[in-house]
Amino acid sequence: MKTKLLLTLFLIVSVFLTACSGGNNNKAGQAKTDDVIKMVWYPNESGENLKASRDEIGRLISEATGKKVEHQLTTDYAIAIETLVNGKADLAFTGAQSYVEANKRNKAVQTIAVKTGESGTLADAMYHSWLAVNVDEQDKFKENGKFSLDKLANTRFSFVSNSSTSGFKVPSQNIIAHFSKQQKYANLTAEDLMQGGPLFSQVLFGNSHQGSAVNLLSGKADVAAFCDTCVKDYVEVSKGEANKVGSVYRVKDGAAEPFNTVVGKEFTLMSVTPVLNEPFVVNMDSLGKEDFDKIQALFTSDEFANNEKIFAPEGSGQAALFAKKGNERLVAVEDKWYDPIRELSK
Asked: Between 107 and 1, whose confidence is greater?
């Protein structure tokens, strides 16, 4: 009896140790998975023209963390957001609206850094949402010599994606605020704008800022929403001042895809709205605090800010993720800084 009892106890202990050993193996497997930092990129930043910036950022992150970095390129905003929210990516560079949406779905998605303005602070950390029309057709969108949003009715309109801050959220809110004052459009919603009627004759989605701009320049759309920073490497001011209503931009000679099919084409800005800069964001559950701290220290360092593969010097003609006109750099930013974007959704 005593022998059976001892044998039973031995088997129980053996099973327990085996279970513990199995648990340790699972953790080891998880640790092995965590040796890779996955960074997902929006369609806007997935082009070949920004490969040098992506590769340099990956190299620096790898040096800082001692881990391999894998880049996940996408052709769809929703895929990039879903990948981050579900923890299949650790790090991303997103729009403000996309961050707010991702954070709402998973609080583990948090900001890590954002680009400042020329001052080197958050005081001017903004870019611009544009509504643009082809130069030859600009008079169709004017009333008494000035651009008027009233002229958007019954036009073919191109947005970027319904997850884009400057390519959908900001312009749609501006359009609704304007038209809802009229009895005919009193109940106009963002969903209405996505579907076309009752305001637009047709709605297109470019799936990237570049794609929306090309929808305009190729004649598929009469008006297009896109942002200044996402097309900076493809276009140049040919008349007026940057980010001013009425200014004309021209597609540069030798512009890369997708602008290679519309080289020399010009568009005019009919509306310009400032927008909070896009953040780098992380999924804390998949990345972890230790790597968060290392990457944040890297991103906010002078080394990162002075790296010309990431911040192209003004006038260099070099394609990079950011343009450096003054003291631009990355700084840490808290979630609440994006509360104004949240307000747009209420």
From this structure: 107
Q: Is the pLDDT of residue 189 over 60?
A: yes
Residue reference for tokens 């340790």: 24
Query: Residue 112 in 3-state DSSP?
Result: strand
* DSSP for 257-309, written as a single string: TTGGGSTT-EEEEEEEEEEEPPEEEEEHHHH-HHHHHHHHHHHTSHHHHT-TT
* Alpha-carbon distances, residue 330 vs 113, 216, 281 (angstroms): 6, 32, 12
**Cα 46 to Cα 94: distance, rounded to the nearest angstrom:** 12
Is the peptide bond preceding residue 198 cis, with omega within 30 degrees of 0? Answer: yes
Cα-only R_g, the chain? 24
Query: How many residues can be counted in the chain?
Result: 346
Q: How far is CA 121 from CA 36, 301, 326, 332, in A?
A: 32, 14, 11, 10
Alpha carbons 158 and 161: distance in angstroms, whole number: 9
Can you read off the two tokens belonging to residue 296? 């944040």
Q: How far apart are CA 52 and CA 57, in angstroms?
A: 9
The backbone region for 14, taken as left when phi is positive above 0, alpha when psi lies in -120 to 50, beta otherwise, is: alpha
DSSP assignment string, 202-264: EEEE-SSHHHHHHHHHTTS-SEEEEEHHHHTTTEEEEES-TT-TT-EEEEPTTPPTTGGGSTT
Non-local (6+) Cβ contacts of 109 within 8 A are: 84, 85, 99, 102, 103, 281, 282, 283, 284
The average pLDDT across 133-142 equals 97
What counts of helices (H) and strands (E) characterise the chain? Answer: 12, 17
Q: Own/partner pairs for 86-89, CB < 8 Å, 24+ apart?
A: 87/283, 87/285, 87/286, 88/38, 88/286, 89/38, 89/39, 89/40, 89/283, 89/286
Tell me, yes or no, if the pTM score tops 0.90: no
